[in-house]
Amino acid sequence: MIRRLHQHAFTLIELLVVIAIIAILIGLLLPAVQKVREAANRISCTNNLKQMALAVHNHESTYGYLPTAGEANNYNWNRTLVNGSPATGAGQSWGWAYQILPFMEQDNLWRYVEPKSTDATQSTFQGDYFILNGIPKSYNCPSRRGRISNQDPYPWNGAAVLDNPTDYAANGGSYTFGFDPKATDGTTLNGPFQGVNHVVNTSGAQPVLTAQVVNGRPLKFRDLTDGLSNIMLFGEKAVNSLTAQNNNDGSWGDDEGYVFGVAWDTIRFGQGATSQGTFAPIPYADAWGNPDNPVQDQPCPASFSGGGYPPDFPGWPNYRWGSAHPGAMNIALCDGSVRTMNYNIDLAVLSYLCARNDGKVVNSDDF
Fold first, then answer.
1. Which pLDDT score is estimated for 32?
2. CA distance linking residue 321 with residue 294, whole number of Å
3. Alpha-carbon distance 297 to 146, whole Å?
4. Comparing C-alpha atoms, which of 60, 271, 255, 253 is closest to residue 171?
5. pLDDT class for 306, splitting at 50, 70, 90?
6. pLDDT per residue over 48-98, tens digit each?
7. Considering only CA atoms, which of 221, 318, 309 is closest in space to residue 263?
8. Residue predicted with more confidence, 44 or 367
9. Which residues, including other chains, have CB under 8 Å from residue 315's CB and lie 6 or more apart?
10. Is pLDDT of 252 > 60?
11. Nearest alpha carbon to residue 315 among 233, 254, 258, 248
């Protein structure tokens, strides 16, 4: 007599129980994976800032002065060339991120010359497009994004322009360019990076900035009288989380590209228009008259500046220090060290960190 073997199949209830267990395990595992990923991203971000800080030190050792914040009055799709080579020091209209490229193992990018970018008298004159759209990986924080190619709405001599935003900003000081009387035209900033104004050559097919300086100069480490360990050099910049991935112009403070001079895209400040008491009831206010706390990337809150602004309004928080990291952002000090700075930092301490010559000593436990 032959017995038949019967296979026992899962019942529907058993199957649902297994699926529920798997879902619970995934739910328990996912936060751990996200924490590991964020920890790795934060380490990578820290390394980026360390590399940038060392590049500034090497720049100062090579040239005898710090990079400048670049041109303060005009945006331009062309860096400044002198006899076909990039201008250095005060003569260069592009900002710090371009000026330190040779010390970021990006000398070829720094030197690259577009075929039609050297003679502004020619009708075919074009911008330095390859550099504009060729941001090094170390200028973006992996917690937020990789390279974003943003299309500017104003073509340069008939050609569309793509540029890449950076996730880091240089310290422009404790008073805001464009809002505060002590910051004037960007050439009197009290951070480690000073803006420069240049003569504009309008005789060609397009106006270009020359190496001739009208006002401003690069600083030296000896000008940072508060001490290199008491002054911020670079920090992460806050961006509206709804616009961080945008590839079209309009995200004010995050749409002009990594190479440009004095702008909210590449320079951030310790406070807004407070030096003359403009916002006297609110100490250490931002450009909108609100307390200038660093923030994690977020949409514009409904209560911002009295309300009425959409969640993707780039006026929040694209003028503040901040980052995509939870709890704290990364900063590099002028001595080359990299630290974390809490979002709830005392705003007086933030102002002291941003000023190069206010005579204040900052304890690392304070931020």
1. 66
2. 5
3. 16
4. 271
5. confident
6. 999 999 999 999 999 999 999 999 877 778 899 998 899 999 999 999 999
7. 318
8. 44
9. 252, 253, 288, 300, 304, 305, 309
10. yes
11. 254
Q: Does any domain span residue 80?
A: yes
- Give dist(CA 136, CA 132) in Å, integer: 11
CA distance 304 to 310: 10
Dihedral (C-alpha) 178, 359, 237, 342: value to the nearest 10 degrees? -140
Q: How far apart are CA 296 and CA 299, in angstroms?
A: 10
pLDDT at position 281, please? Answer: 53
Using pLDDT thresholds of 50, 70 and 90, give the confidence band for residue 296: very high
The total number of structural domains that make up the chain: 1
Interstrand relation of 81-82 and 85-86 (parallel, antiparallel or unpaired)? antiparallel
| Structure letter (DSSP) for residue 47 | H
| Cis previous bond, 317, omega within 30 | yes
Structure tokens, 240: 């509206």
| Domain-located, residue 8 | no
- Range from 102-111, 167-176, 334-343 carrying the lowest mean pLDDT: 167-176
Provide the strand spans (E) within 202-296.
208-215, 232-236, 267-268, 295-296
Would residue 14 count as lying in a domain?
no
Q: How many other CB atoms are found less than 10 A from the CB of residue 1?
A: 2
Q: Please, which residues bridge with residue 236 across strands?
A: 168
**Is residue 254 exposed (0-12), middle (13-18) or buried (19+ Cβ within 10 Å)?**
buried
Identify whether 12 is part of a domain: no
Determine the Cα–Cα distance for residues 74 and 95; give it in Å rounded to an integer: 12
- Domain span at residue 183 reads 19-366
DSSP 280-321: TTSTTB-TTSSB---EES-PPPTTGGGS---TT-TTTTTTSB
The closest of 194, 169, 172, 196 to 258, measured between CA atoms, is 169
- Express each pLDDT in 122-166 by its tens digit: 888 888 999 999 999 999 999 999 999 988 777 777 778 889 999
